[in-house]
Amino acid sequence: MDDNPTDLAEILLIYLQRERDHLVATLDGLDEYDVRRPMTPTGTSLLGLVKHVASVELGYFNDCVGRETGLDLPWDDEQAMNEALDMYALHDESREWLLDVYRRSWALADANVRELGLDAPAEVPWWPPERRRTTLGRLLVHMLDETAHHAGHADVVRESIDGRGGRDHDDFGDEARWQEFVGRIQAEADHFQG
Q1: Residue ranges per structural domain of the chain
Q2: Which of 20, 27, 63, 80 is deepest in the core (most CB within 10 A)?
């Protein structure tokens, strides 16, 4: 692949892949419990984020452009979606299988974008009626935004599990620098403590 593409679709796919890789990397080095346990009051977990983003990507880049995924996902129906089964990993859904589903979603999405082009018509049935008809390019931008959004969530969740920060964490400094930095922030907040 060209190291410096000028085609907008390729540029967007490069950025999307960077966020996909970032999301997956938040699972590195963690055991099955830590990737599955709810870490927020709303139940956010790392593997749940991967499962959700894979599901959304399959919907936008396949269903919304009239393409089949060839995947039979047990959580891909209205009842399962109403129960939010795309938001967490069940005990019998292995990490490897969910990561494979996610990676397959990448391949399908990228192939559809390259084959159909950014101007291809798309329809999103779960969007409000006035916005349902759109283009594959709009969906690509939307999915890039959604993936980056959830990769940011994953950074915070991962940091809550074991203190590992995002991809630029180590560029800032060592543990002593981080402690000093957080101490300064706490001191500022303390001015408002009741």
Answers
A1: 8-163
A2: 20
Other Cβ atoms less than 10 A from the Cβ of 83: the count is 11
pLDDT (tens digit per residue) in 106-156? 999 999 999 999 999 999 999 999 999 999 999 999 999 999 999 999 999
CATH 1.20.120.450 for the 8-163 domain, yes or no: yes
pLDDT greater than 70 at residue 2: no
